[in-house]
Amino acid sequence: MTDSITATVFVGTSVDGFIARKDGALDFLPQDPEDHGYDAFIATVDTIVTGRNTYETVLGFSSWPYGSKKLVVLSTRPVPQPPYPEAVMEHMSGEPADIVRQLAARGAKHLYVDGGITVQRFLRAGLIQRLIVTRVPVLIGSGIPLFGELLHDIPLQHVATRHFPSGLVQSEYRIGGSA
Amino acid sequence: MTDSITATVFVGTSVDGFIARKDGALDFLPQDPEDHGYDAFIATVDTIVTGRNTYETVLGFSSWPYGSKKLVVLSTRPVPQPPYPEAVMEHMSGEPADIVRQLAARGAKHLYVDGGITVQRFLRAGLIQRLIVTRVPVLIGSGIPLFGELLHDIPLQHVATRHFPSGLVQSEYRIGGSA
What we know:
The structure is a homodimer.
Chain A lengths: L5 E9 L3 E3 L17 H5 L4 E5 H8 L10 E5 L13 E5 L3 H10 L4 E4 L2 H9 L5 E7 L1 E2 L4 E2 L8 E10 L5 E7 L4
Parallel strand pairs in A: 1-6, 1-7, 3-4, 3-6, 4-5
Antiparallel strand pairs in A: 2-9, 7-11, 10-11
């Protein structure tokens, strides 16, 4: 049932592997208008899956970044609705495999999995098929890491790497032979 | 006096940023004969600087990897001489800035700084000018990290990125506008 669903991580990190500073700040990410493929990527996604911390960071943005795409927020505690009329947010909790199964049963085809803890949980559970990491040319020394402990090695297949005038380097990997 | 000396880090890591497993094992690095530029790089180096842990790993190799290049081993404790007639090893200790100053005074032009703790100390001290990181397509979850805590952000200038048939992605960065 879940064979027809793909989960992708699309994320920017410092060269030393942090997706945010310890307090969630993203100030080290470039503010330039350079296109790093996000728009093309998000157009292929039907459901975004993230955790409470990323959701709370997003609520601090000046606008809702997901348009009318469905956002699933994973948390064991109640989650406030976003104050944007166009926003579609659903609160879920449970094991990653159950989340994917439920979303697949409801017709989801392409999940965008985001946020440090959530990405790590889905990777550990073997539920990520594509990893697109964009390295921002800076070392920040500490922060929220993209990757965490694993039960065993996860081999990656390199698909493509490109770099941008600003110095960002984006690599796409496939995991486990899936599409 | 140290303006005429350049220090480079040339290192392979897993995509999650580890240079070795916790016990020092390097089994996740490719064993293939693919040329990733190491020979061309090492030809430009006159002095290798590393710490005790990397030195002990190297002593376990089946041959001495540095030819007749000088290897400086940084350690606060005595260091055994390598059991290879061609090996040139010198034991030093002290702050990175002092090490660089002494080596520059003795005519060193291009240092290859290697090993987790040593790389981190030299980066923190602002003494690395070039960073060449080759990402091996695997996540290993834990190990000896390439990067560590910093006193402040270190901006990098992207120089070049190339990838190899085996899936390795190599990015070169310059630090602080130096050559």
